[in-house]
Specification:
heterodimer; A: 557 residues; alpha+beta; Beta-Lactamase; five-stranded antiparallel β-sheet; 46% helix; disordered C terminus; B: 118 residues; alpha/beta; Transcription Regulator spoIIAA; two-stranded parallel sheet; 4 helices; 38% helix
Chain lengths: 557, 118
C-alpha cells in the first residue's frame, strides 16, 4: 500500500546528521527501556514515548493509538496524544475501527499518509488522518495481544520526511511495541489487583492472610477495624513488618486463638469454622472464625475470616426472652379470659336467682342453682387442667409399653377422627417393662395420635397412616410414632414443646407441652424427624433405669 | 518518586521562569510538560526555560517543549530557552530546532522578548 520512493543519495553533511539522529534515537530508547524496568506504568510510558518521538522527529504533535484485540466487543482502545493531537476525538475514535485492523494486516512499515492506498477500509482512515494533519503513521505490532498505530504531525521546519526517517520510525515502533504490550499487561494486573482489594475491603468480615511462616501478608479494612476496636497492640505501622499470627491474635485479647488457628493447618480438610470469644479492653465480642488453608504451587496461605456475631447473639437472646415473656403473658390472658367467662355466668345466675327469690319463684331458683353448679364444676375442671399443666403427679410402676399402646389404640380407633386413618403397630415382643405412669403414657400416646390425625387431615390425605413401633436396647425402650401428614415447617419445629404454640384453629397449644412434661417425668428423650409435605416421626427413648425423674425436658428452654 | 529538580519563578502575571536541573530526559520530561501545561492553563503566555544547569537533553526533553510550544504561540506568547550550553545547542541543531524554537543567550534578553524589564 505504501509506495517506497527510491532513496536519494544524501550529502556527506546530511549523512552525518542522520547518524547523529540515529544515535540520539537509540540513546532515547535505551533510557526508556531502563526506565520501563523500574516503572512499567502504562500511561506514563505512552506519554514519555510520545515526548521522545516528538523530540526525535522534531514534530510538535504525535499520537499513539492502541487497541487490545483480546478483549471482546466493544473493543477497548487507548489513545495518547501530545501537542495538537492531545485528546483528539477523531483519532481516539479510530481505536475500534476496522480501518486500523486493515492497515495493520497490510503488513507494511511506516508510511506517509499522502502515499496511503485508498482502497477499502483505508479510505476513512486516510480521510481522518489527513483532516487532523497527521503526516506519517507506523504500525505497532505485538503478537496478537496489543496493536495499534503511531502517528506524527508535520516537522517543525516544514521539511518533508526522509525515507531514512521512515525506516527509523519503523525501527522505533518495532522496539516499543513489546514494551507497550508488557506495560499494558502490568496495567491489567494492577487493575485486577485493585479490583480484588476493593472487594476485599468492602466485605463485612475481617480477612487476614498468613503465609507459610504464619506471618501476616494481607489484612482488609474490616480486619483492621476489629483489631482497632479491641485495642490490640497491632498498629498500622507494624503491618508492614508482616507480624506473626501470635502477634496479630495476641492471647490477652484472643485467648487460645493463635494455637487453634495454627493447628488448623494440619487438619486434613484444611478448613475449620468455630465460634470464638475475644475480650478487648472495653468489650467482649463473639466471632465466627473461619480458617482455610489455600495451597499454592510452592506455599500455602492460611486465610482467616472473622465475622462478628455479638449483636446477632444478643438479638437472639432478647428474642428468646421476649418469647418467654410472651408465653407467660398469653397464658395469663387466656386463663383470665376463661375465668371471666365462668364468673360472668355465675354472676348472671346469682342475679337471676335474686330476682326470682324476690318474686317468690323458688322452682326457677333451683334450676338456676343447678346451672350454677354445672358452671362451677366446669371451672374446677379448668383449674384442674391448669394444675395438670404446671404439675403432673407421677405415680410410676413397672409396666409394658406395648400393652399401654394397644389399650390406647383400641379406644382411639373407634373415634370418628381416626375412621379413615390406617393405624399400624409394630411391637417389639421382647420389650422389657420399665417404670412408668401408665395414665401419663396413655395421655402421651393420645396426644401423638391426635396431632398425627390433625396433620393428616391438614394434608388432605386419603391414605393417612399412623404407625407405632417399639424396640429396645440395653439401656432404653424406644417408641417411634410416624405419620404421613403435613410435616412440621422448621420455624414451627423450633418452637415445639413450648407453651402456646398452636397452628390449629381452636387449639390451645398446650398438648405438646404436656407431652414434654410427661417425657421429662420419665427421664426420656425425644427427637423429631420431619419433612414438610411428607410427615413426621417422633422418637422417644425411655431409659430402663431412669436416674432422676426430673431431667430437663426436651427442647423446653 | 524523587523530588522534581525543576523550579519555577513568577516574574509577571503572564510570565513564568522555569529552571531546569542537570538533565531533562524521559525521567522528568512529563513533569516538565505538567508544569508548562498547568502554567498555560493559569494564563502564563510566556514561559522562559533557564537551562543554566542543563548538561543533558534527551529527545523526550525536547519533546516536552515541542509538545507545548504551539499552545503558548496560539495564545500570543512563546516558550523561550535561555543560557543553552554548546552540547545542548548541538542536539537542538541536529533536530532542526535551532530556528524553530526561540533561543536567547541570557535571562535578561529572554525576558525582553516577553516585554519584561528587570
Amino acid at each position: 500500500m505504501s509506495t517506497r520512493t527510491e532513496q536519494m543519495p544524501l550529502s556527506a553533511a546530511a549523512r552525518s546528521q542522520m547518524v547523529d539522529k540515529q544515535i540520539l534515537a537509540l540513546d532515547a530508547l535505551a533510557k526508556m527501556t531502563r526506565q520501563f524496568a523500574t516503572r512499567p506504568d502504562f500511561a506514563h510510558l505512552v506519554e514519555v514515548l510520545l515526548l521522545t518521538i516528538s523530540g526525535q522527529f522534531s514534530v510538535t504533535s504525535a499520537f499513539v493509538l492502541l487497541r487490545n484485540p483480546r478483549s471482546n466487543q466493544p473493543e477497548r482502545s487507548f489513545y495518547g496524544g501530545a501537542g495538537r493531537f492531545k485528546k483528539h476525538g477523531d483519532l481516539a475514535n479510530l481505536g475500534g475501527s476496522s480501518a486500523v485492523t486493515s492497515f495493520l494486516e497490510s503488513g507494511d512499515g511506516a508510511c506517509r499518509v499522502r502515499d496511503m492506498d485508498t482502497s477499502g477500509d483505508l479510505v476513512r482512515l486516510k480521510e481522518v488522518l489527513t483532516r487532523t494533519k497527521v503526516e506519517v503513521i507506523a504500525p505497532l505490532y505485538h503478537g496478537d495481544s496489543l496493536s495499534g498505530i503511531l502517528g506524527l504531525g508535520g516537522k517543525v521546519a516544514g521539511k518533508p520526511y526522509e525515507d531514512v526517517e521512515l525506516s527509523l520510525l519503523s525501527m522505533l515502533a518495532g522496539t516499543i511495541s513489546p514494551m507497550l504490550a508488557s506495560s499494558y499487561l502490568f496495567l491489567e494486573i494492577a487493575r485486577l489487583n485493585e479490583w480484588y482489594l476493593d472487594i476485599l475491603d468492602n466485605v463485612k468480615q475481617g480477612v487476614f492472610v498468613f503465609d507459610d511462616n504464619d506471618r501476616l501478608t494481607k489484612i482488609n479494612t474490616a480486619g483492621r477495624l476489629i483489631l482497632k476496636h479491641l485495642r490490640t497492640p497491632l498498629h498500622e505501622a507494624d503491618e508492614q513488618d508482616a507480624p506473626e499470627l501470635s502477634t496479630v491474635f495476641v492471647d490477652d485479647v484472643f485467648p487460645g486463638w493463635a494455637a487453634r488457628l495454627i493447628r488448623s493447618r494440619s487438619l486434613p480438610s484444611g478448613r475449620v469454622t468455630e465460634a470464638l470469644v475475644a475480650s478487648g479492653k472495653d468489650a467482649e465480642r463473639i466471632f465466627t472464625v473461619n480458617a482455610t488453608v489455600i495451597k499454592r504451587e510452592d506455599s500455602s496461605d492460611l486465610v482467616v475470616t472473622l465475622d462478628d456475631i455479638t449483636e446477632q447473639k444478643e438479638t437472639d437472646q432478647r428474642m428468646f426472652n421476649l418469647e418467654k415473656f410472651a408465653d407467660k403473658g398469653v397464658m395469663a390472658s387466656s386463663i383470665s379470659h376463661e375465668l371471666n367467662n365462668f364468673l360472668g355466668l355465675i354472676l348472671g345466675g346469682i342475679e337471676i336467682s335474686q330476682m326470682n327469690l324476690a318474686r317468690g319463684k323458688n322452682e326457677k331458683v333451683e334450676a338456676t342453682l343447678e346451672k350454677l353448679r354445672a358452671n362451677v364444676d366446669k371451672m374446677e375442671r379448668f383449674t384442674a387442667g391448669l394444675m395438670d399443666y404446671t404439675r403432673l403427679d407421677t405415680k410410676k410402676s413397672e409396666a409394658d409399653l406395648n400393652t399401654v399402646i394397644s389399650e390406647v389404640l383400641s379406644f382411639v380407633a373407634i373415634q370418628k377422627k381416626f375412621k379413615k386413618i390406617a393405624i399400624q403397630v409394630y411391637p417389639d415382643n421382647t420389650l422389657p417393662s420399665f417404670p412408668m405412669d401408665t395414665d401419663q403414657i396413655a395421655q402421651l400416646l393420645l396426644n401423638f395420635c391426635n396431632n398425627a390425625a390433625d396433620a393428616i387431615a391438614e394434608a388432605c390425605r386419603s391414605n393417612g397412616e399412623i404407625s407405632f413401633r417399639t424396640s429396645h436396647d440395653d439401656e432404653a425402650v424406644v417408641l417411634t410414632v410416624s405419620d404421613n401428614g403435613t410435616g412440621i415447617p422448621p420455624e414451627v419445629e423450633e418452637r415445639l414443646f413450648k407453651t402456646h404454640l398452636t397452628t390449629k384453629e381452636g387449639g390451645h397449644g398446650y398438648g405438646l407441652v404436656t407431652c414434654a412434661k410427661i417425657i421429662r417425668n420419665h427421664g426420656a428423650e425425644v427427637s423429631i424427624d420431619t419433612r414438610v409435605g411428607h410427615g413426621t416421626t417422633f422418637t422417644v427413648r425411655f431409659p430402663l433405669n431412669p436416674e432422676s425423674p426430673d431431667q430437663p425436658a426436651p427442647r423446653q428452654e | 518518586m524523587v523530588p522534581s529538580d525543576l523550579t519555577q519563578e513568577i516574574v509577571r502575571d503572564d510570565t513564568l521562569v522555569i529552571r531546569t536541573g542537570t538533565a531533562l530526559d524521559n525521567t522528568n520530561a512529563h513533569e516538565m510538560v505538567d508544569m508548562i501545561s498547568s502554567a498555560q492553563n493559569k494564563g502564563f503566555r510566556f514561559i522562559v526555560v533557564d537551562m543554566t544547569a542543563l548538561e543533558f537533553l534527551s529527545s523526550a526533553g525536547v519533546g516536552s517543549i515541542l509538545g507545548t510550544v504551539e499552545i503558548s504561540r496560539e495564545a500570543g506568547g512563546d516558550i523561550i530557552l535561555c543560557r543553552v550550553s554548546e552540547p545542548i545547542m548541538h542536539v537542538l541543531q541536529v533536530l532542526d530546532l535551532a530556528e524553530f524554537l526561540t533561543i536567547k543567550p541570557d535571562r535578561q534578553q529572554a525576558l525582553t522578548v516577553c516585554g519584561v524589564t528587570e
